[in-house]
């Protein structure tokens, strides 16, 4: 049964970007991030209650709490940039860049934490790097677009950078805290950060102008993220991590497939080859 949960995790993670894209056609991406984080926060605390780790809150040290907050800020920045990139660019280009945060994390861990890079990781880094490059190659029509219309690339790259910083901050200073509890605390920080951005940019009034259909998709994207987390946790609880983790990483295939069905985003031959390299590289790093 655990393998069903593993594929469920990949499925829900894969459709998160699709649902979010549907919810930010007219809605400000920062407002959408703030709203969906409420849903994600509820799910993260549900997981905490499931494993009963809330009883260990008092055991968290000051240093660990500081790094939880810092990693939460990095997560918030990553989410804000990711949904801004999704609003401006094609899903089949934004998602591969976001997934490349795995490569940045390995490189930063090597530089800052002196973590070695195995042959499998080295092959994976090269595969994901080349694959991402192939997937974001511009079409002839895109090359003629004004630079302002290509700003999604900057936001997508920032999303990957902040996502990798989240992992590094966790490696450096988060100790002695159960993973689900740590995720819940970080998500709380993300929620505060997201709403601060909304208030600072004076977008709070926009909440009354969000089309009900888009609001529904925003909430569904939060539910999809929560569903992915719950399935992932259940799969890891009952099955081997060496199989569960690679299956979960295949969520990019779900995203690309749905982007074709829903938004008619087609992959060029180069992009298709890039997708194969990204998936192969990911699996090579996890073997």
From TrEMBL:
Pfam family, one: EamA
Listed InterPro entries: EamA_dom, EmrE-like
Domain of life from the UniProt record: Bacteria
Membrane-spanning intervals of the chain: 30-52, 64-86, 106-131, 152-172, 184-202, 214-235, 241-263
Keywords associated with the record: Membrane, Transmembrane, Transmembrane helix
Domain EamA stretches: 1-136, 151-286
Keyword Transmembrane appears in the UniProt entry: yes
Record has Iron as a keyword: no
Cellular compartments per GO CC: membrane
Family: Belongs to the EamA transporter family.
Name by which UniProt lists this protein: EamA domain-containing protein
Classification of source organism: Bacteria, Bacillati, Bacillota, Clostridia, Eubacteriales
């Amino acid at each position: 049964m655990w393998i069903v949960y593993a594929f469920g995790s990949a499925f829900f993670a894969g459709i998160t970007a699709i649902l979010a894209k549907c919810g930010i056609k007219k809605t400000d991406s920062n407002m959408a991030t703030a709203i969906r984080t409420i849903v994600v926060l509820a799910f993260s605390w549900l997981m905490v209650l499931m494993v009963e780790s809330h009883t260990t809150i008092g055991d968290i040290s000051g240093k660990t709490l500081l790094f939880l907050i810092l990693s939460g800020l990095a997560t918030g920045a990553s989410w804000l940039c990711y949904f801004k990139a999704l609003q401006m660019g094609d899903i089949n280009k934004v998602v591969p860049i976001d997934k490349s945060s795995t490569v940045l994390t390995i490189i930063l861990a090597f530089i800052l934490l002196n973590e070695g890079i195995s042959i499998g990781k080295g092959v994976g880094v090269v595969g994901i790097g080349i694959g991402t490059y192939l997937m974001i190659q511009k079409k002839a029509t895109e090359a003629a677009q004004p630079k302002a219309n290509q700003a999604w690339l900057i936001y997508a790259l920032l999303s990957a950078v902040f996502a990798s910083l989240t992992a590094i901050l966790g490696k450096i200073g988060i100790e002695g805290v159960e993973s689900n509890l740590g995720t819940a605390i970080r998500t709380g920080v993300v929620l505060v950060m997201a709403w601060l951005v909304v208030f600072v940019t004076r977008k709070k009034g926009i909440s009354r102008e969000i089309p009900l259909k888009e609001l529904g998709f925003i909430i569904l994207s939060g539910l999809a993220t929560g569903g992915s987390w719950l399935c992932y946790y259940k799969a890891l609880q009952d099955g081997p991590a060496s199989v569960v983790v690679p299956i979960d990483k295949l969520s990019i295939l779900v995203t690309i497939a749905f982007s074709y069905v829903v938004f008619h985003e087609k992959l060029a031959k180069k992009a298709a080859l890039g997708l194969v390299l990204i998936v192969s590289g990911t699996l090579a790093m996890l073997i």
